[in-house]
Automatic annotation (TrEMBL):
The keyword NAD does not apply. The keyword Transmembrane applies. GO terms for biological process: glycoprotein metabolic process. GO terms for cellular component: membrane. The chain crosses the membrane at residues 37-57. Pfam families: LicD (PF04991). Residues 481-720 form the LicD/FKTN/FKRP nucleotidyltransferase domain. It comes from Lachancea meyersii CBS 8951. Keywords: Membrane, Transmembrane, Transmembrane helix. The lineage of its organism: Eukaryota, Fungi, Dikarya, Ascomycota, Saccharomycotina. It comes from the Eukaryota. This is LAME_0D04434g1_1.
Length: 930
């Protein structure tokens, strides 16, 4: 207790005293007199102080103190109803914006949630049994309870699981359409440029709820926008082409009976048509997922980041937990245990599953990754082999074909895919990933979404998209680590990492790279799997999809630069996964010097050939292919035209192409690239083997990730990278010292308030690109007072990861330490500090529940702007306290936990200051090796 007590620095105590003074004067008086008085204190103060001291170890003492005091305040005020609901609002406000823990604001009850109709004309009605359900909200607590409990019963033989997208993707708004009974709903509703507004009004009147919220103003004119005559024609044509009646429900009479149209709107979307507005397309796509999209081949359930279970999915029909009977089974099992109150505890069901015998047979174990299992992510460095960058698909086909009867569904699909890919000339590879680029009134933002899983214009709500992107990244990293797949941050994601260990807040996707060998392992084991985040960590659901032509490693016809995607099924946002491989691509000019220095040592003998080419079939140059096609009736005119276009494009670009290898033949280039260790993605970004051959373990978005050791050199190949680590500006945002976070230039100007124009805000004196510590404090308080909530919350919630990265920068770039010393400090940072990082953002589903509760509460009572700025100030002060402890090298977050080596300097990362000059720190790569 004493040594941890010592961690509570003076600044910290001052702050706490200030709070105590404000809220609990008598405790404060006692505290001021003598610390020893503690032991004799009242129950309250004692509890309070011990929590405070303990929490200080992980750096959250200040918040803990504040929240403890709030409880204190609640307890000491008389229970007036108004104060109560105000207190509830205050607590909820803090939880929503400043607390990232996975904490459900409500419980899920069988009777109150599942068996009470939640939306639509029958809202509030009680159902007798689950058999009466026509729709339900697939709340993760419900679905996990049912599924985990079912799987925990499973025996040694693995039985494919019934599946419907309905249980895993978000159908909340779509359920409103299912609930409609009288409004004349048919295909046309989902294929117009915008909704038929009189029908929309009718539906919303019938259901008593809005069908969507984002960008509502478009429909706000008195009778809503009309569809023009040509728009009506287009709508009818699209609906006729792409949509049919649901035979199940249309067979019955026009008056919808209870069971006939369960889980159906009465029509089925067969193909997607994106020439409509986002709110229309979104429901079209949900219908498509529900009825038409093929089912995943498996569920991959993460066990934290330490392992995964995989359960094959029954392919012949679509069945949600009600239709498959799993729900009823679960309820029956429950009634035996007399579950009287009907509250579901999905986490305890999940724990039971995790410990069950059945779960052991479902563990993923990838034989091809035996080596990596003991190596990747194991320590500070992950080493790659040159052989990871070439893959012989024809040999793989033989291997798989030789054990055809024992292949899993994933392997069968992969085998098909390899056959298709190797038999197809690059000129003819079809575009694999589809984005709804045609969406109307959406600034081409559709391209950042997968066409199938698009679920609304989420970019119009940046707060929401940040949550979803974060959930995606942390789940992806856990997925990689759990399965020993090697993959590192690339492009914009790596660039964002550079500054504060986070993606740029304006980026709407992530980019990662992996060696071609690992892409094949990914495809063989996970293509078309639905990856589920460990429910103890969050509710992310992601579809892993690998393209159909991954044996081609050049840009080819340009259709398939991306190899695979990790797609959020509730927004369509994705991580772009690209593989690096030897190929016959022409080197970029950037590698001219490297190439020219080495080319003479290579010789002319062709030592390496692309193992994936089939002679006289897929290795034919374009011109030869064209000639061959001329007399080949098995090819269409369209194909001839495609080849002709590629030849034209090549001829136009060739003269100005600066590539040092443009005069070499394809097979020579393959040989050269192989010999030189130059690998490329299909968009022809090259890297040199030694830039990535050692990967460094780090933390990104608060979780374990890998970056190439020469990340500065890599970034410089694509971007202009300033030498300083702060005060830089991109995309009208600046990265501020002391704040360690990006801030919009317009907001920065306001918060600096240099000319004093904003009343109630103090003015900042030091320059924006080099703020001093006092001015950072002013800026933070100003952000609280002006209710710049997004900025304040982002900075507050990311202070741990940004401080982690700050320390890492000092260690990576220090001139003071030997490599050996750096390694030991970095390991300590990674293992000890890194393992206690709190989530930097909240789970999107928890946020949804909290927002819903917020809307309920605040319909009765609102917090005043004074209330808000007072609340915000608490958190601004907490960042100020954090910064000041960091400056004084006394931040508990960076202190060594184990007492053993406490007294020693090198135990405390506060004291180990690598002494780097941040104004030139990024001028060259980190020096991690002698
Ligand atoms: C579809 O519904 C619209 C009303 O929104 C109606 O005018 C139209 O006749 C319906 N079409 C069919 C084929 O039922
Ligand atoms: C729009 O909906 C109304 C009400 O259902 C219907 O009468 C009308 O025909 C629809 N208009 C079009 C263009 O489908
Ligand atoms: C609807 O599609 C069918 C074929 O599926 C076609 O015969 C018919 O002409 C189409 N009607 C309209 C109005 O486009
Ligand atoms: C992944 O699965 C899809 C859908 O079955 C298939 O088209 C694609 O070729 C597969 N990719 C690989 C590399 O197996
Ligand atoms: C490919 O075609 C050439 C003639 O164009 C022929 O000489 C050669 O034997 C063929 N190779 C194979 C493997 O069929
Ligand atoms: C195609 O066939 C015609 C005659 O059948 C022949 O004259 C011509 O040279 C052939 N073209 C090629 C590219 O083989």
């Amino acid at each position: 207790m004493d040594s941890s007590d010592a961690l509570v620095s003076r600044v910290f105590r001052e702050k706490v005293l200030k709070w105590l003074k404000r809220y609990a004067p008598f405790v404060a008086t006692l505290l001021r007199r003598r610390r020893k008085v503690f032991s004799a204190l009242s129950l309250f103060a004692c509890l309070f102080v011990s929590v405070l001291v303990l929490r200080s170890i992980d750096g959250t003492a200040y918040e803990a103190a504040v929240s403890k005091l709030d409880q204190f305040r609640t307890l000491s005020t008389s229970p007036q109803p108004v104060i109560d609901s105000k207190q509830q609002l205050v607590q909820l406000y803090k939880k929503i914006h400043f607390d990232t823990s996975l904490e459900y604001p409500t419980v899920y009850g069988l009777h109150t949630d599942l068996l009470t109709v939640q939306i639509g004309p029958q809202k509030g009605e009680k159902l007798n049994s689950a058999a009466d359900l026509r729709f339900y909200d697939a709340d993760p607590r419900l679905v996990w309870s049912v599924l985990a409990s079912h799987l925990a019963q499973a025996s040694k033989t693995v039985v494919p699981l019934p599946f419907s997208w309905y249980d895993w993707a978000d159908f909340r708004d779509y359920n409103k359409l299912i609930s409609v009974q009288h409004s004349p709903l048919n295909c046309t509703f989902l294929f117009g440029h915008h909704f038929n507004s009189s029908l929309l009004l009718q539906i919303e009147t019938e259901t008593g709820e809005r069908l969507f919220d984002i960008d509502r103003t478009y429909y706000n004119t008195e009778n809503g926008p009309e569809l023009s005559e040509s728009e009506i024609q287009d709508m009818l044509k699209r609906a006729n082409d792409s949509c049919v009646a649901d035979s199940r429900s249309s067979q019955l009479d026009s008056k919808r009976s209870q069971s006939s149209n369960a889980f159906s709107t009465g029509f089925i979307v067969k193909t997607l048509q994106d020439q409509v507005r986002p709110e229309v397309y979104r429901l079209q796509a949900r219908n498509y997922i529900l009825h038409t999209l093929s089912l995943p081949l498996s569920l991959t359930v993460l066990n934290g980041n330490s392992g995964a279970w995989q359960i094959p999915i029954k392919q012949d029909r679509r069945e949600n937990i009600m239709q498959s009977g799993l729900l009823q089974e679960y309820l029956d099992r429950g009634s035996k245990r007399s579950k009287t109150r009907g509250e579901l505890d999905h986490l305890s069901e999940f724990d039971k599953f995790a410990e069950s015998d059945g779960s052991r047979h479902l563990l993923v174990d990838i034989k091809d990754l035996k080596e990596e299992k003991t190596k990747a992510f194991a320590g500070l460095f992950t080493y790659l082999q040159k052989s990871d960058f070439e893959f012989d698909a024809l040999a793989k086909i033989e291997e798989l074909a030789s054990r055809a009867e024992f292949l899993t569904a994933h392997e069968l699909s992969y085998l098909d895919s390899l056959r298709f890919s190797t038999q197809t000339h690059f000129a003819f590879t079809p575009k694999y990933f589809q984005e709804p680029g045609g969406l109307k009134d959406f600034l081409e933002l559709g391209r950042h979404h997968d066409a199938r899983f698009f679920n609304g214009a989420i970019f119009r709500n940046p707060d929401q998209s940040l949550l979803r992107l974060n959930s995606m990244m942390i789940t992806f990293q856990a997925f990689l680590k759990a399965n020993h797949l090697t993959c590192w941050l690339a492009h914009g994601s790596l660039f964002g990492y550079l500054y504060n260990g986070l993606n740029f807040p304006w980026d709407n996707d992530f980019d990662v790279q992996m060696p071609i060998r690992h892409l094949h392992i990914l495809a063989q084991n996970f293509n078309q799997s639905l990856i589920l985040q460990d429910p103890r960590e969050g509710n992310g659901r992601f579809f892993l999809d690998v393209g159909s032509s991954i044996t081609h490693r050049i840009q080819g016809n340009g259709n398939n630069n991306i190899d695979a995607r990790f797609i959020d099924i509730d927004s369509g946002l994705y991580i772009d996964i690209t593989a690096l491989s030897v190929s016959s691509a022409m080197l970029s000019n950037r590698d001219a010097v490297f190439f020219n220095q080495r080319k003479d040592s290579i010789g002319t003998e062709l030592k390496h050939r692309d193992p994936n080419l089939i002679a006289n079939k897929t290795d034919i140059p374009l011109q030869e292919l064209y000639n061959k096609l001329a007399n080949d009736s098995s090819h269409s005119d369209e194909e001839r035209r495609q080849v002709e276009q590629l030849i034209q494009a090549y001829k136009i670009n060739f003269p100005s192409n600066p590539s040092p290898t443009k005069f070499y033949a394809a097979d020579q280039r393959y040989n050269l690239n192989h010999e030189l260790g130059l690998y490329n993605c299909r968009n022809h970004h090259f890297v040199q083997f030694d830039m990535i051959s050692t990967l460094v373990s780090t933390k990104y978005h608060g979780v374990s990730a890998l970056v190439p050791s020469k990340y500065i050199a890599l970034l410089k190949r694509e971007y202009r990278v300033p030498m300083k680590s702060y005060g830089v500006t991109y995309q009208s945002r600046s990265f501020l010292k002391g704040v360690r976070s990006w801030i919009q230039s317009s907001l920065l100007r306001k918060l600096m308030n240099v000319a004093g124009r904003h009343e109630g805000l103090e003015s900042v004196r030091s320059p924006a690109n080099n703020l001093n510590a006092e001015d950072v404090e002013i800026l933070l308080r100003n952000s609280a007072k002006s209710n710049s909530l997004e900025f304040l919350a982002y900075m507050h919630n990311s202070k741990e990861i940004s401080t982690y990265r700050l320390k890492e920068i000092e260690l990576h770039f220090s001139q003071k330490y030997t490599a050996e010393k750096k390694h030991s400090l970095l390991i300590q940072l990674y293992n000890e500090v890194g393992s206690r990082l709190k989530p930097i953002m909240k789970d999107p589903f928890i946020r949804f529940l909290q927002d819903r509760k917020w809307n309920e509460l605040s319909s009765q009572l609102e917090l005043s702007s004074d209330d808000l700025s007072e609340l915000n100030l608490e958190f601004a002060e907490s960042v100020i306290a954090w910064n000041s402890l960091l400056d004084r090298k006394d931040l508990p977050f960076l202190s060594r936990l184990s007492d053993k080596e406490a007294g020693q300097d090198d135990g405390d990362l506060n004291i180990n200051d690598g002494a780097v000059d941040h104004s030139i720190v990024f001028k060259a790569d980190p020096k991690l090796f002698e």
